[in-house]
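Sample log: Cobalamin-binding protein.
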Amino acid sequence: MAMPARIPPVLWGLLLWGWASVCLALSATDDGGATVTLEAPPQRIVSLAPHTTELLFSLGLGERIVGVSEYSDYPPAARDLPRIGSHDRFDLERILSLQPDLVVAWQSGSGPDVINRLRDFGLPVFALEPDSLAAVPDDLERLGRLAGRDDIARDKASNYRRELARLTQTYRDRSPVRVFYQVWDSPLMTLAGDQYVTDAIRRCGGRNIFADLPGKTATVSEEAVLERRPQLILAAGDDTGADLFQRWRALGALPAVEYDQLVLLPPDTLSRPTLRLVDGLANLCRAIDGARQTIHESGDSST
C-alpha cells in the first residue's frame, strides 16, 4: 500500500498563513445589507456624518480618523479633523486623496449615490442607519467588530442597553402625555412615526401626536397641531431658541400653553444616534414627567 505523501514544511507554512489570514479578516454587515470585509483593522478612516464620527471616537478610534463631515463637533477633538464636505456635497477627490481603508457613512444622510460612487472606486463603505434607540448599540457592536474593537464595543453597548432598559421601565407605563415635537419653525416640521425620537417619546410614556404619519419627519399646519391638542411642546436648542414657541403662546388655545409646558431640550444628545442618546432620553423623560405632574395637579385626566 502506498504511503500518503508528506506535505513539505514550506507548503504547511503557506496553508497555515492562509488559514490565519482568513481568521484575522474582519467582517460585518451594515444597515444597507452590504457585508464589508477588511484584512486588518482600519488605520485611515473617513466619517461621512457627525454621529458616525462620534461612534468612532466611542471605540477609541479618534486617532485613526483622517477626514470627517461638517458639524462633526463631538467630542471636542473632532473639531480639529480635516473636513471632506457635508451631507449634501462631499468632496470625492478629497476623500480619495486621503486614501482611507474604511469609510463610515450614514445610509440615508450620505445618500446612495455617494456611497455607490465610493464603492465603485474600490473603497470599503460601512453604512449605518439606526432607526430606534435599541439599534444604536447594535450598530456600535458591528462597527467595533469591523474595526477590531470588539471588547470596547460590547462593554459600551452593554452599559447603554442597561440604562435604556432602566429608563424605559421607569417611565413607559406612566399616564400618557400628548407631545408635539417641533423640528423646524418655517415650514412647520415635526417628527413622524419612523423617527427614533418617536420611539424615545413612547419609552417616556409620551404620545407623539403625529406618530401616525409615515416617514421620519413631516410638514404640518398650525391647524393640525391645534386639532390634536398637545399637552407638551418640545424643541431642541439653547436659550437663543426661545422664540420657537412664540407662535404657540400667541395662539394660546392649547393645553401645552395653558400648562406652560413649552420646553427646550439640550441640543445634540437626542438629535444624534450615538451613545449619548440615553442622556437625551433622560432629559426627555424628565420633561414629559414634569408635564405629567402639572396635568395631574390641574385635575385634567384627559389623554
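Observation: The longest strand covers residues 177-184.
Observation: The radius of gyration is 24 Å.
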